[in-house]
Amino acid sequence: MTPIASTFVAGPDGVWRIEVVEPVTGASLPAAPRLSVLAGHVVQPASALWAVRGSTGHQRYTRRDEAAALRAVQAGLDRPAATWASLIPIQKSAAWWELAQDERRAIFEETSHHIGASLRFLPAIARRLYHGRELGEPFDFLTWFEYAPEHAAAFDELLAVLRASEEWLFVTREVHVRLARQ
């Protein structure tokens, strides 16, 4: 998979209307009226209130069979019916990053069941994960979700399942940006 670099820009313009910027853990991001998702890593426009950057990459904690299961049911982004979205930037603790790769994997899936728990919400909820840590960004991960309004309760259930997992004990900052496309 060719990496996709994106910049999420909050300000006066954008396809997505920001409904709420909710701090879940740690400091929030400033409220803004709109959000644009721009291709590439662009300089924050002068009119922007904030911008976060990330790139897709290889699936770090996913086995081949799990990746195949995800691909088999994962819906694509930009579906006409998926007029609601959420951008969830997350920063994990130094303790998380001090763990070896296999230790992080064990917490991610064997204990927290991140992939297994998420599968039952697909294809209703589409998602794309971006990595920001290697770019020197303030958030390690940016998760972009898109879904139809009738799947909002399922999306909230997915978040509750993930946030109740052992993996989330390592989250030091999380902001939930809820959006609607006009």
Report on the architecture of this protein.
- This protein is α+β, with helices and mostly antiparallel strands and 182 residues long.
- It has one domain: Alpha-Beta Plaits.
- The protein has helices at residues 64-73, 94-98, 101-111, 114-119, 152-163, and strands at residues 5-11, 16-25, 34-39, 50-55, 84-92, 126-131, 141-147, 171-181.
- The protein has an 8-stranded antiparallel beta sheet.
- A hairpin with an 8-residue loop joins strand 2 (16-25) and strand 3 (34-39).
- The longest helix is centred in the C-terminal third of the chain and has 12 residues, at 152-163.
- It is globular.
- The chain starts with a strand and ends with a strand.
- The mean pLDDT is 91.
Q: What's the short version?
A:
By secondary structure, this protein is α+β, with helices and mostly antiparallel strands. The chain has five helices and eight strands, in the order ββββαβαααββαβ. Strands 4-1-3-2-8-5-7-6 form an eight-stranded antiparallel β-sheet.
Q: Topology, pairings included?
A:
Elements: E1 5-11, E2 16-25, E3 34-39, E4 50-55, H1 64-73, E5 84-92, H2 94-98, H3 101-111, H4 114-119, E6 126-131, E7 141-147, H5 152-163, E8 171-181
Antiparallel strand pairs: 1-3, 1-4, 2-3, 2-8, 5-7, 5-8, 6-7
Mean pLDDT: 91
Whole-number total of structural domains: 1
Low-confidence stretches: none
CATH topology-level name: Alpha-Beta Plaits
Quick one: biggest sheet? 8 strands, antiparallel
Report the helical percentage: 10-25%
Q: Strand tally, please? A: 8
CATH class: Alpha Beta
CATH architecture: 2-Layer Sandwich
- How far apart, in Å, are the first and last alpha carbons? 30 Å
Class from helix and strand fractions: alpha+beta
Order of helices and strands: EEEEHEHHHEEHE
In oligomeric terms, what are we looking at? single chain
Strand content: 25-35%
Number of discrete helical segments: 5
Radius of gyration: 16 Å
| Strand order, sheet with most strands | 4-1-3-2-8-5-7-6
Q: What is the approximate shape? A: globular
